[in-house]
Amino acid sequence: MELLSHFSTLLSILPTPPTGTPSSVATTGISFFSLWIGRVGGLIAFIGAIKLALSIKDEGSKEQMLAVLVMVSGFMIKAAVYNLDIFKIPATYSVQASNAEFQAILRFIGKWTRRVGAAGMPFGAVNIGLSLSSNDAAQKVIGLKSLSSGGVVVAVSAILSTFV
Fold first, then answer.
1. What distance in Å separates the CA atoms of residue 143 and residue 95, rounded to the nearest whole number?
2. Main-chain phi, psi angles of 93, to 5 degrees
3. Are the CB atoms for 73 and 44 separated by under 8 Å?
4. Fewer Cβ atoms within 10 Å of its own Cβ: the N or the C terminal residue of the chain?
């Protein structure tokens, strides 16, 4: 019963969802949800950083890689949500405005896929370097695959506008 008494305190901390006309609800709703989704992204990045710190003492590079991926995904969520202004639709929507909006969205997607691919390439390079010291053929293959897949993602995202 004591736990339930704290529930009302918790609810008073949380902001109230937006109300009003559909236009104002859409405008304030985007701000409301982007704030909270950004906070969740920050928490995910924090959890990934803690997992990385705890996995450094272990020998398992798989745990470290998963922790880095969790951390990066949290940062990506936070950064993507704070860039939601690219999705605002003007009141007078013309063909030129729709083309400009679509190009802005493509630039946003291309920028983040290049960043993800560029982040994957150093991991492949490190795997190759470690495999040369231990003469492990399987690790060399994994490193080459990681390096080349990151390079392909960077290259494809650089020419994203030619596909659409």
1. 46
2. -100, 115
3. yes
4. N
How far is 154 from 149, CA to CA, in rounded Å? 9
- Cβ proximity of 149 and 123 under 8 Å: no
> Rg (Cα) of the chain, in Å, rounded?
22
Q: Where are the alpha helices (DSSP H) in 14-160?
A: 22-55, 61-82, 95-134, 137-158
Burial 45-58 (b: 16+ CB within 10 A, else e): beebbebbeebeee
Cα–Cα distance measured from residue 62 to residue 58, given in angstroms and rounded to the nearest whole number? 10
CA gap 81, 24 in Å, rounded: 19
Two structure tokens written together for 143: 């490193």
Q: What is the pLDDT of residues 43-101, one digit of tens each?
A: 888 888 878 777 776 666 788 788 888 888 888 877 777 666 655 555 556 667 767 77
Instruction: State the DSSP H helix or E strand holding residue 10, giving kind and residue range, or none if neither.
Output: helix 2-13
**pTM (two decimals):** 0.43
